[in-house]
Amino acid sequence: MVWAIIILLLAGADQLIKYIVEARISYGDSITVIPSFFHLINRRNTGAAWSFLADKDWGIYFLAAISALVTLVLIYIIFKTPYIKLKVVLTILVAGSVGNLIDRVFRGYVTDYLDFHFGSYAFPTFNLADILIVCSTAVLCILLFTDHRIIDHPFGLEKKDIEDVNNEAI
């Protein structure tokens, strides 16, 4: 239950910030926070990360379907795995996914608003949900490489327990 509450709080924060951005900043306009470095901007992304598939009419539906499917699988793992570290990381990942999924389903685009420039390079605009997804995915990769129990027994089953389950099925 606590995991569901965390997901709702983080996804809710993402949605609240996007609502404020859309209410206060006209589409395409920006507010300079740090000149030549950081701006708040109201941008619409109909694709995935860095506008992948944005030019395809079917892209938003495809991305929403894939995102929903992956989110459901991750929620299942959150509730089944005994590993607290994995629960935390996947909860944050799901919260980000849900935040952007809400946008795709109800708006037809994802609102991005964090805009950074490094000299002549402009980093792709992003949002809180993107931060949650990227950071939790990075931590998940580290976790999977450093804790082999998670890969070997994602639901906490010991080898003898797996053998017992397999023998019962025969």
Number of strands: 4
Rounded to an integer in angstroms, the radius of gyration calculated over CA atoms is: 19 Å
Gross morphology: globular
Helix content: 55-70%
Q: Structural class, from helix and strand content?
A: alpha+beta
Widest beta sheet: strand line-up = 1-2-3-4
Catalogue the unreliable spans: none
Order of H and E elements:
HEEHHEEHHH
Average pLDDT score = 87
- Tell me the β content: 5-15%
How would you characterize this protein structure?
By secondary structure, this protein is of the alpha+beta class. The chain has one domain. 61% of the residues lie in helices and 14% in strands. It has six helices and four strands, in the order H-E-E-H-H-E-E-H-H-H. The protein has helices spanning 2-24, 59-80, 84-106, 128-146, 148-152, 159-169; strands spanning 30-34, 38-45, 110-118, 121-122. Strands 1-2-3-4 form a four-stranded antiparallel beta sheet. Helix 2 (59-80) packs antiparallel against helix 3 and helix 3 runs antiparallel to helix 4 (128-146). The protein is globular and about 50 Å long. The protein starts with a helix and ends with a helix. The mean pLDDT is 87.
